[in-house]
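tool=predict chain=A
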Amino acid sequence: MKVAIQGIKGSFHHIVAEQYFGKNIDLVECLLFSEMPDLLKENKAEVLIMAIENSIAGAILPNYALIDEYELNICGEYYLPIHHNLMALKGQKIAEIKEVYSHPMALLQCRKFFKNHPHIKLIEDQDTADVAKRIQDEKLMGVGAIASNLAADIYDLEILASEIQTINDNATRFFILNNSANGTTTSTSKASIKFVASNDTGSLAEVLGILAKHHLNLTKIQSMPIIDTPWKYAFFVDFIFNSYSDYSNAIREVKEKVVTLKVLGEYTKNKRS
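tool=predict ok
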């Protein structure tokens, strides 16, 4: 299976790919999330793995926009515990590190650690593992990366400090994405939708009331501005259900109460580790 990820080998997306699909996969590496949807369209990948939110840093809003714009189908999800490590070329100490490069989300998740090391300048980069590879390839002294244990192993770097994330119970939720829904299965227990509520007072509350009436358990609600309509918002909602008929009935009823509704995916909920 051709699996596209953001990042390179050693990235957290790579870890998710192997844990979700196994190691017998053809990995397609992308440095930017925005490169990924076209890979499906051009048949260069069968599925995409895309981070969507982190328990410390919050939602990755541009990825919601990509899923919506490219009509991507959410066919699965995966929660990965995130363990951040500061690494550099072997033989160095933290006092010798002047700059640390990493993905913006990784930097956000580790800011408290670096408050105790004010001599280090934090610089945003495209991918955690790519920085680790660059440090080794270019033999960059005084430069550190924030990345996974796997990246340290692959690129032969020394971990100067482990578990540097601000909160130990740090996890990222990833979506597994493809081009089209393949129909429901007996294990389908979660859904993601996008809707635009009417301007009537209490319209959002009415929608949430319908979901509750049909025994759907809301797990996430995220608002996003509608670009071409200032001060108008779309809502992205995730919920779990025990009965597919309850879910279907709720969707039919919600459709009658909102301006637009799109089902982004129906899939099996993944247990938070």
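The two ends are 25 Å apart (CA to CA). The chain is about 30% helix and 35% strand.
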